[in-house]
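Why this split exists: single-chain examples teach little about how molecules sit against one another. For that reason, every record in the complexes split bundles all components of an assembly together and asks for one structure covering all of them. Below is a record exactly as it appears in the raw files.
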Amino acid sequence: MSDLIERIAYCVEFGKINKISPYPPNMKGQDGADELTKQAIDKGIDPDEILNKGMVVGMDKVGQKFSENKVFVPQMLMSAKAMSTAMEHIKPFFQSGAVQRKGKFVVGTVAGDLHDIGKNLVGMMVEGAGWEVIDLGVDVTAEKFVAAVKENPGCAIGLSALLTTTMVNMENIVSEVKNVDKDTKVLIGGAPVSNDFCNKIGADHYSPDPQGAVKFLNSLVA
Amino acid sequence: MKYNQLAIDNEKDLIFGHAPNPVKTRRGLEIGGGIVYPELNFTLPEMKIDVNDYSPVINHYKQIVSGALERAVHLHSNGVVLEFETLIEMTQNPDLGISIIKEMNDICEDYFAKHQLKSEIRLTPNDLREFERPARQRTSSLLDPMMELFEKGAEAGGNFLSIESTGGKEISDDALMMCDIKQFIFSQAVLGARDMEMLWGKIVNIANKTGVIPGGDTACGFGNTAMVLAEKKYIPKVFAAIVRVATVVRTLVAIEQGALGPDKDCGYEGPFLKAITGIPISMEGKTAACAHLSPVGNIAAACADLWSNESVQNVKLLAGMAPTIYLEQLEYDARLMNQAIKGGKESVLGLQKLFVDSDLYFDPQAFVLAPKNVIEISKEIVSGENYVDSTKKGCLKAIDLIEDAIKDELLMRDEKEDEWIKMLKDDISSIPGNESDFIEQVLPTIDQSKLILSEYGLT
């Protein structure tokens, strides 16, 4: 594997965005994921390899450390920033089809609910795992989820809720989404939600944490 | 800053059940006047609110209040506060919220008449302004139903007015996730403080007009978000501890505007407010584990005047309905504290020492709530020249105390947090004491598309 690819993976793992970013302190002044990705493309390295053997590997490693409580969320967010900055160089290759993501993931906090920290964390980790994430925001109605499913055939859906009176809105959303495409996979999460509730409303997966969401989605394309 | 000295400057006077400025209610509760009362909090079970038929919702609240007050009578309770924290539908449609308060108040009256049980309702409308993004904190029409609910709800029987206001939340969530303490302090000492000034001016006016008590606010959406994230190991505990101190000044503004207490239960900044202003406070600890986990289960009771459970769903447990069960748990905790009060100051300090020592060194979030540390930090807060300066000084003092406790090998901590203590200290030290300089420093670092500066009086 190219040395550049390994260095990109390292920069993403440790959240080194670009040359001027001060974080992490021990890499101050060094090229970051941004510069290295551009260099890799200029050298003609396959963008798919840059993405999947560089950036995604770096995110995998930091995600693993996060799962083992070795790093905190801010460190993972720095990694995500490094990856998203580097992704700007890869974007043109998505349009040409030279690079493909694992799939599309539409995520939102359900109608009546404004809590979005958990949803944002899931979105960030899923994106880092190589998925395209479409974030519908908070207080999202069934109609908006249905519209997103129609616009993005084959996408997976993520629903978040933190209130006992808004979790019930998940059932309607699952039903409406499955009416459009019964094969659409729906995963749910949030403090009041459980596996039993997931089964009851006909969703496909309940995850208590962002790592579980990534694992489930990756299992769909394994 | 209105306050430049402490109402309680000796840790031995920062105790449960007594506040320098107690609050008396119409049915005879005297909060902070020598008795600790339970404050019961509750919510609906998993259910959909049908806009065409509110009776199932209202029946839940009637059942909750009847069950709790019946149990309170059975346990010879000194009195009970019931917090009605509205769900979105009950604020969007104030008539629903008002109907529930009226039904609850009728039951309170009935128990007062028949059993002389003293109970009061704390009315806490939810802050609807969050629904608009970016929020229009001052000009949103969503303020109208909130204020209508405050006023008509007070007339219907809500005797304490409170809110969990959200000014500054546009910035704080990201700041917490990134552990950016400067941005977080900006969200509290600049945005939050400005919003509290506007909002609490209105709430205090309504309270005065309707003859009820302006209770207080809570930084739950800020400090407790950090606490929950730290419990999940998403952010360092030491960061969450400093965040707690950084929330004090924001909530203090409600009292500057005329709030009298009791401050809201989920505001763990309460002990600081009590030390600075002398108002009574509500606190929650181990009996709030039904709603969220925390590292402060016992120490939170150290200077509580009301003792709360945060929130519990109206679901059936083995012994009965959950709110009734939680009333009993709160009542027994209150009974223990009240027995200590009967035994005199030494007895109070003895029980308080157990509350404090049993949690003190397990977590920096508990450590900063020890009465001794609360007094030390509060002294720094009131020495500040403005909200930013006060917050900076309070946070730096908290870091010093934490560092000393670590150096003395008293405070337990995860070694991977060590680098964060240094980063926090460096970041906070670099904050200018002047508000306008601080605004100039922070604004370029935040995503300004998420907030409307003019809604905070900033341009």
